[in-house]
Amino acid sequence: MEFSDDERLSLQRLLRWRRDVRHFRTDPVPEALLDTLKEAMSLAPSVGNARPWRVLRVENAGLRQGSASPCTTEPMHRRWQPSPMRASPSTSN
Predict the structure, then answer these.
(1) What pLDDT score was predicted for residue 1?
(2) CA distance 4 to 7
(3) Closest by alpha carbon to 35, among 18, 57, 11, 51?
């Protein structure tokens, strides 16, 4: 597949623009946009075409607030603590 210069520049701009999302809007997402996003997800590459992502649609605001994961509520340094290394007994003689 060959890309034009314009396509390459567009991709480069998109990759530079991409940011992690930490704050989310609370208004409902239109159904047509959800359909467009589902189609885009089905085209996204994954190892072995496994598509390991999971999507939840939570319409109840109380449930949404109560289900916030540590990934969105805790600072990064608290989320990613290395596991202590444990020595295992040797089985060789």
Answers:
(1) 84
(2) 5
(3) 57
Helices (H), 1-57: 5-17, 31-43
Structure tokens at 31: 């159904």
Q: What is the pLDDT of residues 51-83, one digit of tens each?
A: 888 888 888 888 877 766 655 555 555 555 555
Between CA 66 and CA 53, with CA 21 as vertex, the angle to 5 degrees is 75
DSSP helix, strand, coil percent of the chain (3-state; round to 5):
45, 0, 55
Distance from the Cα of residue 22 to its chain's centroid: 11
> What is the pTM for the complete model shown?
0.50
